[in-house]
Amino acid sequence: MIKMTLWRKSFPWHLAFPGMAMLLEIGTVIALWIICTGAYGQPAWIAESLIVPLTGLALSTGGIIGGILAVAGVYLLIIRWRLWVSVTLIALVCLPSMLCACIFTYALFVFLCLA
User: Fold this and answer.
1) Dihedral sign, CA of 14, 18, 24, 26?
2) What is the per-residue pLDDT for 4?
3) DSSP single-letter state for residue 1
4) Cα 80 from chain centroid?
5) CA 88 – CA 112 distance, rounded (Å)
6) Which of 82, 107, 100, 105 is nearest to 18 (CA)?
7) How far apart are CA 115 and CA 105, in angstroms?
8) CB 115 within 8 A of CB 55
9) How many helices (DSSP H) and strands (DSSP E) are in the chain?
10) What is the largest CA-CA distance in the chain?
């Protein structure tokens, strides 16, 4: 039998996925705000040729990777925690992350059709 290392026993990795999904969605909103203020603010410090790639990168990261992290978080919470803990964490953390990921993915598809 292979012994588990100390870091696997001490940190609940199945709780990290929902948290990372939520932080990624918040980071995507902040990145989009920075892109908009940097491109369309009074002192425009982002070049006009970089607006489209940066927006596409932010939307794809928030939509696709955030959705994968949220779904993985739901799965890990369901199989590793009690029902009331999983339902609470799924309702408070995973569902808003999934909703944001769906909105960002839809915005990415619309953005790619118009760009």
Assistant:
1) negative
2) 55
3) -
4) 22
5) 36
6) 100
7) 15
8) no
9) 6, 0
10) 63
CA distance 4 to 13: 14
Q: Beta-carbon neighbour count of residue 5 at 10 Å? A: 8
pLDDT band for 82, please (50, 70, 90 cuts). Answer: confident
Q: How many CA atoms lie within 13 A of 100 on its CB side?
A: 24
Residue 50: how many CB atoms within 10 A of its CB? 13
- 108 contacts 59 by C-beta, under 8 angstroms: yes
**C-alpha separations of 6 from 10, 52, 55 in Å:** 6, 45, 40
Greater model confidence, 42 or 26 = 26
Confidence of residue 12 (pLDDT cuts 50, 70, 90): confident
Residue 26, both tokens: 């918040």
- Band of pLDDT at residue 110, cut at 50, 70 and 90: very high
Tokens of 59: 């939307």
- Give dist(CA 81, CA 78) in Å, integer: 6
Domain boundaries along the sequence of the chain: 51-115
